[in-house]
Write a structure and sequence with these properties.
24% of the residues lie in helices and 10% in strands. The chain has helices spanning 81-96, 129-142, 166-179, and strands at residues 3-7, 13-17, 36-40, 49-52. A 4-stranded antiparallel sheet has the order 2-1-3-4, covered by helices on one side.
Length: 186
């Protein structure tokens, strides 16, 4: 079974087995304090895949869950889901899974896992694309520290840190909405 190494908030690593995380997992998405995510097959089988993860995520600047600021420009843009899928694979699947379905362990958080995006929390979902985009935009822009005594993983502030452009965030939002059966058209 492939092992996945995720970077924790203290720079250490957390290793999860395939039954917990797919070999190539995504939002995001949560603890990007180290130099990267390393995904490799055991015994050198197949190719090793490594993605460089930005070191921008400063835990002290990430709001607690439910205390995110307002949506930003990305929530008003029409994203391209195909570009969003590529960005999701690069930056988000390490925590959320290839299609947003994996529940990566997050010790120290109240529920013990990274929230899945497919299906997304009903409190964030909406059949109205503009409302759905605004709901998830707040978390992507500003980040989030899950409830719990000391969650090891958290959602980086992709917008506030300018790690992703507003168009790139809109593209990721379009992909997450598509995973949940919501299409945004001009």
């Amino acid at each position: 079974m492939p092992n996945i190494a995720l970077i924790s908030n203290d720079g250490g690593s957390i290793v999860a087995r395939k039954h917990t995380v797919s070999a190539l997992v995504i939002f995001t998405v949560f603890t990007f304090l180290g130099s990267g995510i390393s995904v490799a097959k055991p015994n050198g089988a197949g190719k090793s895949i490594a993605a460089q993860v930005p070191t921008f995520a400063d835990r002290s600047k990430i709001p607690a869950s439910g205390k995110q600021g307002p949506p930003a420009e990305a929530a008003t843009l029409t994203g391209k889901w195909k570009q969003g899928e590529a960005l999701f694979k690069k930056w988000c699947q390490s925590c959320h899974g290839p299609r947003g379905t994996d529940m990566v362990k997050n010790p120290g958080s109240d529920d013990g896992t990274v929230p899945p995006l497919n299906p997304i929390d009903p409190a964030l979902a909406s059949k109205t694309p503009s409302a759905f985009a605004a709901n998830i935009d707040r978390f992507i822009q500003h980040g989030s520290i899950p409830d719990g005594p000391k969650p090891e993983l958290f959602m980086p502030n992709w917008g506030d840190s300018q790690a992703l452009s507003q168009q790139e965030i809109a593209d990721v939002e379009a992909y997450v909405m598509r995973l949940n059966g919501v299409r945004r058209v001009k």
